[in-house]
């Protein structure tokens, strides 16, 4: 029996001359693709390799974490779906996205991530960047959500670079 391997992904460059909403969507998609690019070709076990023994940070944990973040900001907050629960995190396991990841569930976790991205995009489609919602006792705009998500991915893609290098020496891109 062969183990599942994260599929290859084709990344497209970010926008160079797009309207603001399209540019934000394209930059966010580039960062989403970058995370998956860093995982491509790795098995479930490799996706759980830690670069620092004292940390729970892994590539699979990042995929699970960013599925949670996509769900939180786009669907729960902006989409106002207050009944929507967390995917992996619980009261008992507040970092369940990282702490409870297992290689046998890698394929399902990737499918969940892709589904959350699709659902996040659906919530934002056709909406104004100036549309607002209240969360954490502050008012936010959809524009802020895009910018925050791009920042979130950029930071975690830096982690993904280091994790991938520790696994097989792959760097850059």
From TrEMBL:
Pfam families: MST (PF04978). InterPro entries: DinB/YfiT-like, MST-like. It comes from Streptacidiphilus jeojiensis. This is DinB family protein.
